[in-house]
Amino acid sequence: MTVDEALRIADGLELDLVEISPNAKPPVCKIVDYGKFKYLQKKKEQEAKKHQVVTQLKEIKLRPRTGKHDRDYKLRNLKRFLAEGNKAKVTMRFRGREIVYAERATQLMAEIADEMKEVAKIEKIPTRVGRTVSMVLSPLPRSSK
């Protein structure tokens, strides 16, 4: 039907003519109460937001000379972050002349990745940017039992 005819019918019913699909040939319109339409649309969006899962990027920071006990403590936190469903970034920072031992960072990152292999996968391999080496781990998908 023509636009004029549709507008006349909508006016007669005291409703609005709303274009639903403008890209269709011919465009699809609907006669509805526009205020109620917008209200229901907003409610649907709010309901969809409730069911979204938001992941955060948590970070642990290490140094090349961090002791074994301190490293184990930080790795326990890392496992907790991953168990909560968050991604985790492991960062190793060099200060002063420590940069000479940059290969130690690669070795430590490999050890950390090996320890975390049952709870996480490497999303971003260890990369060196300036005086920092970092990698990103993401939790493994949970198996439904």
Describe it.
Helix content is 39%, strand content 29%. By secondary structure, the protein is of the alpha+beta class. It has 2 domains: 3-49, Ubiquitin-like (UB roll); 57-139, Translation Initiation Factor IF3 (2-Layer Sandwich). It has a 4-stranded mixed beta sheet, with helices on one face. A two-stranded antiparallel ribbon has the order 1-2. The longest helix is centred in the N-terminal third of the chain and has 17 residues, at 34-50. The protein is rod-shaped. The mean pLDDT is 87.
Query: What fraction, in percent, of the residue positions are helical?
Result: 25-40%
Q: What summary fits the major beta sheet? A: 4 strands, mixed
Q: What would CATH call the architecture of the largest domain? A: 2-Layer Sandwich
Q: Span between N and C termini?
A: 55 Å
